[in-house]
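Sample entry (184 residues):
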Amino acid sequence: MKISADFTVVPDDFAKAAAAPYRNGGVPIVSFPFYIDQIEPEARYLHWAFTDPDSIPVCGFEWIHWTVANLPIDALMYDFNDSHALSIPPDFSRQLPAMIPEAVQGRNSSASKFVGRDNDPAITMRYNGPQPPDKDHDYYLHVWATKEPLPGLNQGFWLNELLHALRNCDETPDQGGIFVTGKA
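Predicted structure, serialized as tokens:
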């Protein structure tokens, strides 16, 4: 599997410098677009995690920005410029519940008891854009593809639940990822 994006630095609309209409409670909430190509032909479901390993020295843990599970590949549109690439469009996180209700989004680190945010699912169970407080951070988007949906994952699952479900599935998931930078 190959993951790609049209950028190496997360554009302002999806990160710290996002304009007010692209924020909720000061948090960037419009997810960035990316592409998935060279998926195993038998794969039928996508799952992903977008995290910030560089946050560990800042807050003590890897910040979870976005997780998705059980997204049927057949529900996605192919990129018109490349008939093999699946396109995840901008603002997919906010559109996903209405477009593809069987796919689920997990909690991000804004839901952590250590962060002290409210429980607004529009903030805690959707995309939260990069906002590195100390310096530029490298972020990792890890995507997996499976033949079957992962059992036991409901809206608001935690990243560890996704990883356990992937480890316990009856197949070796196809996978790929990319690093992108978020500007301080």
